[in-house]
From TrEMBL, chain A:
Organism of this sequence: Pontibacillus chungwhensis BH030062
The reaction(s) this protein catalyses: L-glutamyl-tRNA(Gln) + L-glutamine + ATP + H2O = L-glutaminyl-tRNA(Gln) + L-glutamate + ADP + phosphate + H(+)
The protein's name: Glutamyl-tRNA(Gln) amidotransferase subunit A
Enzyme Commission number: 6.3.5.7
Subunit description: Heterotrimer of A, B and C subunits.
Organism taxonomic ancestry: Bacteria, Bacillati, Bacillota, Bacilli, Bacillales
TrEMBL record, chain B:
Any GO MF annotation of the entry: glutaminyl-tRNA synthase (glutamine-hydrolyzing) activity
EC number: 6.3.5.-
Native organism taxonomy: Bacteria, Bacillati, Bacillota, Bacilli, Bacillales
InterPro entries, sorted: Asp/Glu-ADT_sf_sub_c (IPR036113), GatC (IPR003837)
Family: Belongs to the GatC family.
Keyword Protein biosynthesis: yes
Keyword Transferase assigned: yes
Region (Disordered): 77-96
An annotated GO BP: regulation of translational fidelity
Subunit structure: Heterotrimer of A, B and C subunits.
Protein name: Aspartyl/glutamyl-tRNA(Asn/Gln) amidotransferase subunit C
Enzyme class: ligase
UniProt keyword list: ATP-binding, Ligase, Nucleotide-binding, Protein biosynthesis, Transferase
Length: 491, 96
């Protein structure tokens, strides 16, 4: 058995009783990483020296009043698009390959540190968070710990795989169109995308600023709630972070969902969703019924327009956000340029991968003179209609439930040829980002091939508490979250 | 009918400060054309009178006092730069 099979609150108790040390937890993490990360490839950069030094400090504080941070001694992995002071931050792109000494910590990293958590290392991802399989990492593709022939999902594939493989018990990811929830589903872990504005984006390398959110990936719902509680809240460095009080999310985990009103959109169990996934969701609804919740079929009529809307808007925003990578102040500069214009063009062309270039060009096109109204403005209007679908349903129901993804994980290399097929993986997660509401994925079954299936629970703006309550009650009634991949031998 | 031509792709690449070879331009044209054709399904939607959503929150301007503060040192500002000279960032010549 691994120390990471214990939940966060148990680990803290064991630490304060001095049954284990913070350094033991780091041993668990780094030993497991050397054992399995050659196959899983979840990490880009390890932070072992700094982490060990911090563990030494924290071990002195065990059981004392100072050592009472909410995440005291907890090892955590951080997605590599979250800036870490003095620790290499690449967003899995060659253009930032040499960014070894960033100048500041993202707000979430500062908050983890203040809560006495320890950053184990930086996690692999699709380059600049653009992708659904981690195959767009410029370093190497992370593999699914349940079967390394399969993708872990993306873009937070490293964040999900590291937790599933037992390399770290907790991680941070980011979610622009499903990038936390889809890999969480594929890897059989819990992943939450908070309400837009719940968590500061300061220090998150921007992809699509009106959609991006940072969120936790964990083995259990309770652990997830502890981490959100730590990282959420108003931040003067992010003017879109909300001035709304952060509740103690763990107090919402009552196990009671009696009378909970669930909406099940018919579009989420329609054509394109595999039979295995539909069955798993239907069984989950039965579990809720048995616990005293009720559900009705509803409609989110504009769901089918979400994918187009998302790619136009997110690519447009990306084309502006990624203009900052110009080879001047930091990052890669092409050695082949003789003048300024060539320096920009060659640095960017040599530094960005194909998917990033495609989206920058799509966005530049959608925003360019003569096409702006037809594409960009039209997509913003479609977004209004999609958001209204959610507002209407959530006016009458507590949560919306459906699958996280249409199918379980697919094979490495299966969808790399056609961008549109790859994009279709995110069809059930993207509308949630467009509406700005919170959504979680929790394990709800396995396919015939032994790959995890995820259940998506969506809530009202800033009502993560109800999302967690619903997810936790389901988790307590099932045992999918206790199952682990046999990778590297049973442990 | 194609939605975007190879010439347009090259123009867009120039606007976005990307260098694309002829081979890349051909490939990107096909892929972007597929994506744009797919996105044109939005034309089915009647959006007459629908307000565009730029942002899901109902945010007004968020103001703060305009006060000078210490941020980073000159040394910090230069330490990740690809090329520096005399305490400044060096770039290739702009004028011919």
């Amino acid at each position: 058995m691994s120390l990471f099979d214990y939940k966060l609150s148990d680990l803290q108790e064991m630490l304060h009783k001095k049954e284990i040390s913070v350094n033991d937890l780091l041993d668990e993490a780094y030993n497991r990483i050397s054992e399995v990360d050659g196959d899983v490839k979840a990490f880009i950069t390890l932070n072992e020296e700094t982490a060990r030094a911090r563990a030494k400090e924290l071990d002195e504080l065990r059981g004392t009043p100072e050592g009472r941070g909410l995440l005291f001694g907890m090892p955590i992995g951080v997605k590599d698009n979250i800036v870490t002071k003095g620790l290499r931050t690449t967003a899995a792109s060659q253009i930032l390959d040499n960014l070894t000494d960033p100048l500041y910590d993202a707000t979430v990293v500062q908050k983890l540190d203040a809560a006495e958590a320890i950053n184990v290392g930086k996690l692999n991802m699709d380059e600049f968070a653009m992708g659904s399989s981690n195959e767009n990492s410029s370093y190497y593709a992370t593999r699914n710990p349940w079967n390394t022939d399969y993708v872990p999902g993306g873009s937070s594939g490293g964040s999900a795989a590291a937790v599933a493989a037992g390399e770290v018990p907790f991680s941070l990811g980011s979610d622009t169109g499903g990038s936390i929830r889809q890999p969480a589903a594929y890897c059989g872990v819990v992943g939450l995308k908070p309400t837009y504005g719940r968590v500061s984006r300061f220090g998150l390398i921007a992809f699509a600023s009106s959609l991006d959110q940072i969120g936790p990936l964990t083995r259990t719902v309770e652990d997830n709630a502890y981490i959100l509680e730590t990282i959420a809240g108003l931040d003067k460095m992010d003017s879109t972070s909300a001035d709304i009080e952060v509740p103690k999310y763990t107090e919402a985990l009552t196990g009671d969902v009696k009378g909970l009103k669930i909406a099940v959109p018919k579009e989420y169990l329609a054509e394109g969703v595999s039979d295995e996934v539909k069955e798993a969701v239907q069984k989950a609804l039965k579990v809720y019924e048995d616990m005293g919740a009720t559900w009705d079929e509803v409609t989110l009529p504009h769901s089918k327009y979400a994918l187009s809307t998302y790619y136009l808007l997110s690519s447009s925003e990306a084309s502006a956000n990624l203009a900052r990578f110009d080879g001047v102040r930091y990052g890669r500069r092409s050695p082949n340029a003789e003048n300024m214009l060539d320096m920009f063009k060659l640095s960017r062309s040599e530094g960005f991968g194909d998917e990033v270039k495609r989206r920058i060009m799509l966005g530049t096109f959608a925003l360019s003179s003569g096409y702006y109204d037809a594409y960009y403005k039209k997509a913003q209007q479609a977004r209004t209609l999609i958001k209204k679908d959610f507002d209407d349903v959530l006016a009458d129901y507590d949560v919306i439930i459906g699958p996280t993804t249409p199918t379980p994980a697919f094979k490495v290399g299966e969808k790399t040829e056609d961008p549109l097929t790859m994009y279709a993986n995110d069809i059930l997660t993207i509308p949630v980002n467009l509406a700005g509401v919170p959504g979680i994925s929790v394990p709800c079954g396995f396919s015939g091939e032994g790959l995890p299936i995820g259940l998506q629970i969506i809530g009202k703006h800033f009502d993560e508490a109800t999302v967690y309550r619903a997810a936790h009650a389901y988790e307590q009634a099932t045992d999918f979250h206790t199952q682990k991949p046999s990778l590297g031998g049973a442990k | 009918m194609s939605r975007i031509s190879e010439e347009q792709v090259k123009h867009v690449a120039h606007l976005a400060r990307l260098h694309v070879s002829d081979e890349e331009a051909e490939r990107f044209t096909k892929q972007l054309d597929d994506i744009i054709s797919f996105a044109e399904q939005l034309n089915e939607l009647d959006t007459e009178g629908v307000e565009p959503t730029t942002h899901v929150q109902d945010l007004k301007n968020v103001m703060r006092k305009d006060e000078p503060k210490k941020w980073i040192t000159q040394e910090d500002a230069l330490k990740n730069a690809p090329e520096t000279q005399d305490g400044q960032i060096r770039v290739p010549s702009i004028l011919e």
